Amino acid sequence: MTIATPSTDILIRKGRIPGRSGFPGADIRLADGRIAAIGPSGSLMPAGGETVLDADDGIVLPAFVDLHTHLDKGHITPRRSNPDGSFMGALTAVTADRVANWNAADVEARMEFALRCAYAHGTAAIRTHLDSAPPQNGISWPVFARKREEWAGRVELQATALCGPDHALDTALVEELARTVKTYGGSLGGAISVFDRAGEAIANLVEAAGRHGLDLDLHIDESGDTASRSLSLLADRIIETGFSGRVLAGHCCSLAILAREDAKATIDRVAEAGIAVVSLPMCNLYLQDRRAEETPRWRGVTLLRELKAAGVAVSLASDNTRDPFYAYGDLDMLEVLRESVRIGHLDHPEEKLADWFSAVAAVPASTAGFAYGATLAVGAPADLVVVRARTPGELFSRPQSDRTVIRAGTVVAARLPDYRDLDTLLGVTS
């Protein structure tokens, strides 16, 4: 990929963009921070004074949208690892680390590091869940508000209050969280899976969100137990109450192991309720069906194809990063897309593969209501990622570490931060 004639405007020549029938060739002109024109490959001629970027048939994507992350948990593994790799091991480890270490300075430093990673990889919008059981709500939300202001124009940020199922049963606590969320312009969330009183917990969250005019973003059925039917309960509650806000359900793992007729009935109900779904394939591949000394027998990923076929808005996202829930990851949405295609067998039929690229861009942007729309269209923000790969086979075979990130029509020089930057914070010694 070559860049010549530096200027404030760019002409990307001989690129390829995701389309309805694959990756057609395209030229893209960027001017004044916007996409000014898109034409077939070779159709746009250089204008005086603009930078010419020869993509050499490389794929051009909109900058990414990461709909489900945990910026407050990120990068704590060096000081608090998961003892056995299990979900309960993660929960216990995170709780201990939060109590011991999550003051404002600690949370802010790790959030900043994570945002630098995401920005360098080409992400333009992120929604993070924030552990919000008191007193943490009084610590993490003000930190988030500062980060949102500081990163405005680089990464658009949203946040969701996360609480456990026991907290969701406490109506006074749910009310406190709803007020916190309202104050900071976030959404209300919670984690509900196998739980005798799941219906009651969901009802409390839906009622509070409706009363305060909030959107909902819940962790649902992050379990390998077929008794975990919270997604169905959520859909029923949304339909019964006529809840009018946006509703997003994350994980939905147990849906994948229900009997076909049960899964179909749930999916139909989800579609009727207008609930969007975000899948976190890398994290759930790591956590689900983990048993000591045994090989896992299922992937932990929800029914991506079936949900999408039913008209449900389906997104793919990072989830946790270098914490006890997922020991790896770097908030790289190209990695998320690559691994999701592999894990979910989204590569066939080939003519439909390009449509899944919207699951890390336009679909999550619309689902969350971000100002950034993550589309390649005339008039859209000139926020792009250009890679050397010419085909999906090339794209998914390498990490594309030499990608070119363009923001507001300018090639950015951001580099990934060094993990050593966190050594003092995490107590790492050489």
From TrEMBL:
<dbReference type="GO" id="GO:0004131">
    <property type="term" value="F:cytosine deaminase activity"/>
</dbReference>
<dbReference type="InterPro" id="IPR013108">
    <property type="entry name" value="Amidohydro_3"/>
</dbReference>
<feature type="domain" description="Amidohydrolase 3">
    <location>
        <begin position="195"/>
        <end position="412"/>
    </location>
</feature>
<protein>
    <submittedName>
        <fullName>Cytosine deaminase</fullName>
        <ecNumber>3.5.4.1</ecNumber>
    </submittedName>
</protein>
<dbReference type="GO" id="GO:0035888">
    <property type="term" value="F:isoguanine deaminase activity"/>
</dbReference>
<keyword id="KW-0479">Metal-binding</keyword>
<dbReference type="InterPro" id="IPR032466">
    <property type="entry name" value="Metal_Hydrolase"/>
</dbReference>
<dbReference type="InterPro" id="IPR011059">
    <property type="entry name" value="Metal-dep_hydrolase_composite"/>
</dbReference>
<dbReference type="GO" id="GO:0006209">
    <property type="term" value="P:cytosine catabolic process"/>
</dbReference>
<dbReference type="GO" id="GO:0046872">
    <property type="term" value="F:metal ion binding"/>
</dbReference>
<keyword id="KW-0378">Hydrolase</keyword>
<dbReference type="InterPro" id="IPR052349">
    <property type="entry name" value="Metallo-hydrolase_Enzymes"/>
</dbReference>
<dbReference type="Pfam" id="PF07969">
    <property type="entry name" value="Amidohydro_3"/>
</dbReference>
